[in-house]
Amino acid sequence: MERERRLEEWDKRYLWHPFTQMKDYEAQEPLIVERAEGVYLVDINGRRYIDGVSSLWVNVHGHRHPSIDRAVREQLERVAHSTLLGLSNPPAIELAKRLVEIAPEGLTRVFYSDNGATAVEVALKMAFQYWQHKGERQRTCFISFENAYHGDTLGAVSVGGIDLFHRIFSPLLFPTYRVKAPYCYRCPEGLRYPGCGLACLRALEETLKRHHRECAALIIEPVVQGAAGMIVHPAGFLRRVRELCTEYGVLMIADEVATGFGRTGRMFACEHEGVTPDLMCVAKGITGGYLPLAATLTTEEIYEAFLGEYHEFKTFFHGHTYTGNPLACAAACANLEVFEKERTLERMATKVELLAERLKEFWSLPHVGDVRQKGFMVGVELVADRKTKEPFPPQMKVGQKVILEARRQGVVIRPLGDVIVLMPPLAIPEGELERLVEIVYHAIEKVTATI
Q1: Does residue 451 have a pLDDT over 90?
Q2: Which residue(s) pair with 42 in the sheet?
Q3: What residues does each domain of the chain span?
Q4: Sheet holding 294-299: strands in order across?
Q5: Chain center to CA of 357
Q6: pLDDT tens, 30-47?
Q7: What is the pLDDT, as a whole number, of residue 210?
Q8: CA-to-CA distance for 249 and 131, rounded, in angstroms?
Q9: Average confidence score pLDDT of the chain
Q10: Could you tell me the CA-to-CA distances from 240 to 206, 217, 245, 300, 385 in Å, in that order?
Q11: pLDDT digits (tens, 9 = 90+) for 284-335
């Protein structure tokens, strides 16, 4: 017990945790994960927890999957890292080929980076530089959506739309044209889908009409806005966005960092509406939750705009020290092999239906305002008053109380404000999936019963 006590003390003394109010954290008993197996995390005291958010949306096939473990070990026996600046390595090459083969048709080139935000930074800079090479130097702006989240680096924050996260940094950001995004539960137009006729697209179309000649690209989280609270877009919205970008000659960037690699029930969310973006950002699940890696995929047309003689300096002057890291790429190749061999997406379909059926029970809880699901991406929005949709005051910390109660019952989840998020590993067995949902249900029931 001395080791455990010491770790807890050092954790609070030396660490600064991301997206965490440390005043609250220091008052709680920390959960320190020491090992994992399958869909379970195990803390330093031996307690087991279902990993209900896939270790922040990254784990796919469960922890310590033998095939991915083996791929990393075998790569360690060759080389852990070598630069991709002017050199290459087999795992990076093989992974690029596989990504192009499974990506929406028309995406043919892969540029590696380290995480979701850097993949977005790459896409923004590529889109900007593309138009510079094309001679349309006035195209320096971007179109983004309200409630968007694309990462925490300054370029990604500039195209973000969650004031809670982004407003404080506004003096450091470049301006964008921000347009309305669909949020059917809290529709700003007071309309209902499908009778609304996707009225939320009007602002986008008007913005494109007025400003398309100065815009380099539009960026969107396809089908689901994750960090905004698992807001699921109505059918047809993404397809129409693609059509408008094509009509007005603006590049489309799809941020599939959260939605990619099976989270919505398809390998990529763009597949739900047959859309091919001009640039696509992926990360999180790309290595199955093993190592940091990201990629920005783009079309041959965009790639060719950067080709030229050395002295023309058309090179894309961007890179990361660990770009194309062989260990991470080896894990990612193994991850995609497991998808194929274990028929992950096919076997996931019945579990998505089971999850949808079990989520219906949440409507019996009086403080559940909305339940949103796309594949294994789930958001349960808690409200003070279901009739008026009035949210709870932040100082009540309802979402935080729910996840702590779920933790006491053996589940690790994380809220987005008062939206309780579920995003289990795709390989979660049905029994554990039912237990996850049951514990979260009772956690919400217990916390909200005293309000």
Answers
A1: no
A2: 35, 48
A3: 31-61+343-449, 69-341
A4: 107-113, 294-299, 279-282, 251-255, 215-220, 141-145, 177-179
A5: 24
A6: 999 999 999 999 999 999
A7: 97
A8: 11
A9: 97
A10: 14, 15, 9, 23, 34
A11: 999 999 999 999 999 999 999 999 999 999 999 999 999 999 999 999 999 9
CATH class of the structural domain 69-341: alpha beta
Q: Do 31-61+343-449 and 69-341 share a fold?
A: no
Band of pLDDT at residue 268, cut at 50, 70 and 90? very high
pLDDT class of 450 with cuts at 50, 70, 90: confident
The pLDDT, as a whole number, for residue 1 is 81
For every residue of the chain, which 3-state class applies, written as one string?
CHHHHHHHHHHHHHCCCCCCCHHHHHCCCCCCEEEEEECEEEECCCCEEEECCHHHHCCCCCECCHHHHHHHHHHHCCCCCCCCCCCCCHHHHHHHHHHHHHCCCCEEEEEEECCHHHHHHHHHHHHHHHHHHCCCCCCCEEEEECCCCCCCCHHHHHCCCCHHHHHHHHHHCCCCEEECCCCHHHCCCCCCCCCCCCHHHHHHHHHHHHHHHHEEEEEECCCEECCCCCEECCCCHHHHHHHHHHHHCCEEEEECCCCCCCCCCCCCHHHHHCCCCCEEEECHHHHCCCCCCEEEEEEHHHHHCCCCCHHHCCCCCCCCCCCCCHHHHHHHHHHHHHHHHCCHHHHHHHHHHHHHHHHHHHHHCCCEEEEEEECCEEEEEECCECCCCECCCHHHCHHHHHHHHHHHCCEECEEECCEEEECCCCCCCHHHHHHHHHHHHHHHHHHHHCC
Q: CB within 8 A of 16, min separation 6: which ones?
A: 22
Q: Can you tell me the mean pLDDT for 334-355?
A: 98
Mean pLDDT, rounded, for 178-196:
91
- This prediction has a pTM of 0.97
Pick the CATH number of 31-61+343-449 from 3.20.20.30, 3.40.30.10, 3.40.50.620, 3.90.1150.10: 3.90.1150.10
| pLDDT of res. 188 | 83
Q: Determine the pLDDT at residue 306.
A: 98
Report pLDDT digits (tens) over 381-409.
Answer: 999 999 999 999 999 999 999 999 999 99
- State the Cα–Cα distance between residues 400 and 415, nearest whole angstrom: 7
